[in-house]
Design a protein that fits this description.
This protein has seven helices and two strands. By secondary structure, it is mainly alpha-helical. The protein folds into two domains: about 120 residues, no CATH class; about 80 residues. The chain has a two-stranded antiparallel ribbon with strand order 1-2. Strand 1 and strand 2 form a beta hairpin. It starts with a helix and ends with a helix.
């Protein structure tokens, strides 16, 4: 096999091309050239692409270069804005799409190769992209329905509160009306009593 790799012209050309491409890379990672996505069985964990990007481009808290940090910061900012917009956490697929878009936009990359997973990672097929879109759409629909249900409950609560406030206000009005009528009745009785006393005094004087 060593003899084959050493003499095969196509292999040598491909190897040289890969070497040249590596020299041109703006992004530097620290775990070697194997596919990042194939590291998951070694750790037993499945971090999303943004977390994986940080793990593979930092060492002791220091980023490998400013381009890697720029991609990470912009991706995190986009995720935060999207979560504020949707009022909830994003799925791994949504975070993946945001990262890929941010990576290509930040570094002006036109390749369809998924970024952040190493050169051995393969692009998603058409059926996989459709499956992801369907899954994200279903998740968005469920989130919308959940939000709509929450809003309906809030509206019902407000209506109940307003109805209770109106009932309380009407009760206060009724109490004030009864108190006023009672006061008017008392004043009328006092007026009648004064008139009776005045009439009695006049008769006594006569």
């Amino acid at each position: 096999m060593i003899e084959y790799f050493g003499t095969d012209l196509k292999f040598q050309e491909r190897s040289q091309k890969n070497t040249d491409n590596r020299k041109k890379q703006k992004i530097k990672h620290i775990i070697g050239s194997k596919s990042y996505s194939q590291r998951n069985p070694e750790t037993g964990e499945e971090p999303d692409c943004i977390t994986l990007w940080e793990l593979t481009h930092t060492k002791n808290g220091t980023w490998s270069n400013t381009e890697s940090l720029d991609v990470y910061d912009k991706a995190c900012e986009e995720v935060k804005n999207k979560e504020i917009e949707t009022q909830g956490p994003l799925s791994d697929e949504q975070r993946h799409n945001i990262f890929q878009t941010t990576y290509k936009g930040t570094l002006q990359c036109k390749s369809s190769q998924p970024r952040g997973y190493g050169y051995m990672a393969k692009p998603s097929t058409g059926s996989e992209r459709i499956r992801i879109q369907i899954k994200e759409q279903a998740r968005a629909t469920a989130a919308f329905q959940q939000r709509n249900s929450e809003l309906s409950h809030q509206i019902n609560d407000l209506q109940d509160q307003l109805q209770a406030e109106r009932a309380n206000t009407q009760e206060i009005i009724n109490l004030e009306r009864a108190e006023r009528e009672q006061l008017e009745g008392k004043l009328k009785e006092e007026r009648a009593e004064r008139e009776r006393l005045l009439e009695a005094e006049r008769k006594h004087q006569d």
